[in-house]
Amino acid sequence: MPRGRSTFGKRLKEQARQQKQRDKAERRVQRKQDKPDIATDETDEMREMREHAAEQAALFHVGSDEPNLPEMPKVRERTE
Fold first, then answer.
1. Domain map of the chain by residue range?
2. How many CB atoms lie within 10 A of CB 32?
């Protein structure tokens, strides 16, 4: 039984839709792979900041011979 022209058109349209879906999924996967790992970047940044702070403390001898300073008074919250 021969198929009509509309069936052929529907088939082409469906194939195009499926191809768009595959392309979209491929782009999504590619973006995930290209995206840098934020947690790793933050961890590295924090480590570098700690190292830098330790170097600065060593330069200024912070924490070695200084007497303990009194704590700042605590600020009381308002109650209504």
1. 11-59
2. 8
Distance CA 30, CA 23 (A): 10
Cα separation, 69 vs 14, in Å, equals 75
- Tell whether pTM > 0.90: no
Q: Distance (Å, rounded) from C-alpha 42 to C-alpha 48? A: 10
| DSSP output for 4-29 | PHHHHHHHHHHHHHHHHHHHHHHHHH
Which residues, 6+ apart, have CB-to-CB distance to 62 below 8 Å? 56
User: Which residue has tokens 């995930």?
Assistant: 32
Place of tokens 């782009």: 27
Tell me the per-residue pLDDT of 58-76, one tens digit each, with 9 for 90 and over: 888 765 555 555 566 666 7
Residue whose entry in the numeric block shows the structure tokens 């924090």: 46
Q: Quick: pLDDT tens for 18-46.
A: 999 999 999 999 998 887 666 667 888 88
